[in-house]
Amino acid sequence: MAGPPMNLCGDRKTASLYAVGSGALSLTELLAAIIGGAHQLETAQTLVTRWGAALPQVDQAELEQVAGVGRQTAARIKAALELGQRLAHQIAEERYQIRVPQDAANILIPLIGWGLAVQNPSTPYAVLLLLGALAGIGGGAFSGFMPSTSYFFPRSNQGTALGLQAGIGNFGVSLVQLMTPWLIGFGMVGFLGASQQMKVPGKPDVTVWYQNAAFFYIPFILVGTIIAWTMLKSVPIKANIRQQFDIFRTPDTWWMTLLYIMTFGTFSGLAAQFGLLMLNLYGAGNAAIVEGAGATATMLVDGYTLPDPVKFVFLGPLVGAGARIVFSPLTDRMGGAIWTLISGIGLIGSIAWTIPALTPDTSSAAALEAGFDQFLYGMLLIFLFAGIGNASTFKQMPMIFERRQAGGVIGWTAAIAAFG
Fold this sequence. Notes:
The chain is elongated and about 85 Å long. A hairpin with a 6-residue loop joins strand 5 and strand 6. The protein is mostly helical.
């Protein structure tokens, strides 16, 4: 059906609306359609270049000062932006319920599997890989629901909202590492499985129940699933495959992916390896410090006391998650880019300071203790700056991309950076 008559020279973007539809237009082109007139595209480009995604927060009087805008056009722009925000908020309030009970099974299956696998030292490595892949469903869920958060808050508050949500989630890493040594120290329920023996250098074997570290969380997952099943909502925003893949056509997606690998990739990778690094560098895993295992192990460095990794390992994720929460409001106030820059510089500096400690000096107990202190504090600094970067990058993405794309980019970068 033919559209109404138009002035194709003076109203080019309105013509594009009729020709291809609003969904195919860029932010600048949509704004040009609102502005109208012979120089609509140039005026729109000026506004986007100057304020970008912060345009909704610009006062009308300030808009009026831009050449080609004026009072009436400024009022039209403000009205259109306000209408869009109100409609988005209304859609968010009228969101649909999620009722997918199999999601609970997807999380419980690997948890139960790990509880069974750790009881048998001969469990095939392939089974452990399979359980690791299944456990990744939880990470996929995290990457999936993070984008929806951005729909419920204005851009001015999305740094804080996403920082709080992700930061509290990141605390789970620290919580598990803090709780596990205590949980495996006693038999919870007899039917959960038999005990195992853990070897400690220079000391008798310790009776433990490794399966407790997995089975303990099953009731909490069931409660969380019930809450999600009855209360959690989803954003009714749909996009076809072509629309979803359009994020890969902009260089900003790839730059943000690299930045988030720098920050969250560092956090997630070191959170998993912190304890193992400590053990192999300054603990029982270093053959230059300890010879043998269990009660018959021999200390090769007189006067040196082996650090217990379980007393320190939770500190790294704790610092990183805390930094993400504390600095997220600052990213809303000052912008994400400046804090990402600070994060990058801080990571480079703290890594450079920590590198010498990765080669322990085993000449004396004092040298080892000094190296351990440098390693510990250097690692905590790395976690601190990684947490700052985690907050700042999640502030940048909603500001760089329009709302639908921002959700997709957040999900994509979160999933890729988890490979860290």
